[in-house]
Design goal:
Radius of gyration: 18 Å
Number of helices: 10
Distance between the termini: 46 Å
CATH architecture: 3-Layer(aba) Sandwich
Helix content: 25-40%
Number of strands: 14
Strand order of the largest sheet: 6-5-1-9-10-11-12-13-14
Strand content: 15-25%
Order of helices and strands: EEEEHEHEEEEHEHEHHEEEHHHH
Bound molecules: adenosine monophosphate
Structural class: alpha/beta
CATH superfamily: Ribokinase
Length: 307
């Protein structure tokens, strides 16, 4: 069951209270692909990179079952670059630099070999380009999931609202849900978002887990309490990769299976934050993932007798 992933493949410079990196590999589609390819192949990547992007990363992704036919390489420009600084609590960050570079003239197309994919993950990217990919699909995928961030709400809110009408699931963090709706209450914001297009909404709350909304139902998945969160960059995209990977693997897009999928997403995100960049995702094994998912089961499972 194929999964198309659209988004950035980038370089990031990250500052946390525990350390600092110069330029390391990042990007929304990079993290989604690393996470999702543990569950489903092929992952069909649509992105753009510059002349600086490390061939070894591309080769590593290919070896994991990621198709890169839809990744454009530009010879005379650098890749998208993002730099951010995290605060002590690691739940909030400031964007220091967003250099679009190759992204400024990205014109994404769906390669012929990707047509017919059942799952489409629209990772963080210009909303207009997310729309362009939906419009290029000859058959609408069974499930379209969209991730976005404050940056695009600030400069392209109308385009974002237009593409929201075409997706099944929206993933945002709590501050983005507030910015999108003007509602402070997360529950009120969720109700409003569910009238804007998506039938399902996932609100990520960092170390406080994630909420899944659908009609009048709410489901909560915790984040694993970790002693050290080293670098939260990419945790949202890694969550998205685990979520989509599980749904594509099981071919079941019911609300009930989405509950399991957000646990899988949370488990994958918990690895991502253990090291800088995608490093931890590159080293984990299937057994590590299974053990981590079991830790989540143990964390929330309890019996109760109501008398
Ligand atoms: P996350 O921590 O999951 O929100 O995602 C972080 C990743 O998103 C980083 O690796 C960045 O390269 C990438 N990123 C940052 N800003 C943007 C943006 N405006 N559009 C697309 N990708 C971005």
């Amino acid at each position: 069951m194929a999964l198309i992933v659209v988004g950035t493949m980038a370089y990031d410079a990250i500052e946390t209270p525990f350390g600092k990196t110069d330029k390391i590999v990042g990007g929304s589609a990079t993290y989604v692909a690393y996470a999702a390819s543990n569950f489903v192949t092929p992952v069909q990547q649509i992105s753009i990179v510059g002349n600086d992007f490390d061939e070894a990363i591309m080769a590593d992704l290919k070896a994991r079952g990621v198709m890169t036919e839809g990744v454009v390489r530009v010879k005379d420009k650098p890749s998208f670059f993002w730099s951010g600084r995290y605060h002590m609590d690691m739940n909030s960050r400031d964007t220091l630099v967003t250099d679009l570079n190759v992204l400024a003239d990205f014109d994404p197309h769906v390669p012929e070999a990707y047509q017919g994919a059942d799952f489409l993950m629209l990772g963080n990217l210009m909303p207009k380009l997310q729309m362009q990919v939906i419009d290029e699909m000859r058959v609408r995928p069974k499930l379209i999931v969209l991730d976005t961030m404050n940056f695009w709400m600030d400069i392209a809110m109308d385009d974002l609202k237009a593409v929201l009408k075409k997706v099944d699931v929206l993933m945002v963090n709590d501050s983005e849900a507030r910015q999108l709706t003007g509602e402070y209450s997360i529950v009120k914001a969720a109700k409003t978002i569910l009238t804007m297009g998506p039938k399902y909404l996932i609100i990520k709350k960092g170390e406080h887990g994630a909420l899944l909304f659908h009609e009048n139902h709410v489901f909560y998945a915790p984040a694993l309490p970790l002693e050290d969160v080293f670098d939260p960059t990419g945790a949202g995209d890694t969550f998205a990769g685990g979520f989509m990977g599980h749904l594509a693997k099981t071919k079941d897009i019911s609300f009930n299976n989405m509950k399991t999928a957000i646990i899988v997403g949370s488990a994958m995100a918990s690895f991502c934050v253990e090291k800088f960049g995608p490093e931890r995702l590159q080293e984990i094994t299937r057994a590590d993932i299974d053990n981590r998912i079991q830790e989540f089961v143990n964390l929330v499972q309890f019996d109760i007798d109501l008398v």
